[in-house]
Amino acid sequence: MRREIVLDIETKNTFQDVGAYNPSLLKISLIGCYFYETDSYESFLEADFPKLWPRLEMADRVIGYNLFGFDYPCMQTYYAGDLKKIPTVDIMVEIEKRIGHRVKLDDVAHATLGIGKSGNGLQAVEFWKNGEIDKLREYCLQDVRVTKDVYEYALNTQKVFYFDRIGQKKEVPMPIIPPNSAQSITLNLSLGL
Questions:
Q1: Ordered per-residue pLDDT tens for the chain, 193 residues
Q2: Phi, psi (5° rounding) for residue 27?
Q3: How many angstroms separate the Cα of 14 from the Cα of each of 24, 62, 106?
Q4: What does the DSSP 8-state code read for residue 67?
Q5: Which of 78, 91, 162, 177 is least surrounded by Cβ atoms within 10 Å, i.e. has the fewest?
Q6: Structural domains present in the chain
Q7: Which residues partner with 171 through β-bridges?
Q8: What's the whole-model pTM score?
């Protein structure tokens, strides 16, 4: 049984609001996840974060786009352990290793899948500020779906595509190792005990 989790977060505020490009200063409005173990999409508001942490700690790995550069630094202020100790596939980091620069998820999704994100993070902040939680949830989980589909494409074909700055479609080799199919339960010891 696969215990992988695809994850994306949305924030309550922006870098402009906090006066610096520092993800750890941002407040999370919602965390969206896809759980392979239950084949379900779920979302977590701040009050629900304690329900998510044990699931992350038991994950075979967490998959996302820019987890190390954005999501994890934001989440770390809420989580007592060390998120960097959880096995992680950061698709953006994997692409950057191969081509030498960062690429937006939307450019990868459009080139690889023919679909993209449903909007941008600033819309998600507005949804939060306007109390439109259902729209926020829908937006975040669409990003999770797109990330999951890009991940599965890479897992199955060992490559993804992106559109470069002049609009040309480029291939990126992505030799992602399939998840361990062993049934053993592991615990990612991320708390400093």
A1: 789 999 999 999 988 888 888 999 999 999 999 999 999 999 999 999 999 999 999 999 999 999 999 999 999 999 999 999 999 999 999 999 999 999 999 999 999 999 876 667 789 999 999 999 999 999 999 999 999 999 999 999 999 999 998 999 999 999 887 776 444 445 555 554 3
A2: -105, 135
A3: 11, 24, 20
A4: I
A5: 177
A6: 4-173 (3.30.420.10)
A7: 161
A8: 0.90
HEC-encoded secondary structure of 68-137: HHHHHHHHHCCCCCCHHHCCEEEHHHHHHHHHCCCCCHHHHHHHHHCCCCCCCHHHHHHHHHCCCHHHHH
Contacting residues for 120 by C-beta, under 8 A, at least 6 apart? none
What's the per-residue H, E or C state across 121-174?
A: HHHHHHHHHCCCHHHHHHHHHHHHHHHHHHHHHHHHHCEEEEECCCCCEEEEEC
Tell me the Ramachandran region of residue 21: left when phi exceeds 0, alpha when psi lies from -120 to 50, beta otherwise. beta
- What does the block give as tokens for 114? 């023919």
Separation CA 89–CA 62 (nearest Å): 6
179 with 186: CB under 8 angstroms?
no
CA distance 168 to 124: 29
Chain centre to alpha carbon of residue 120: 14
Owner of token pair 């002049």: 166
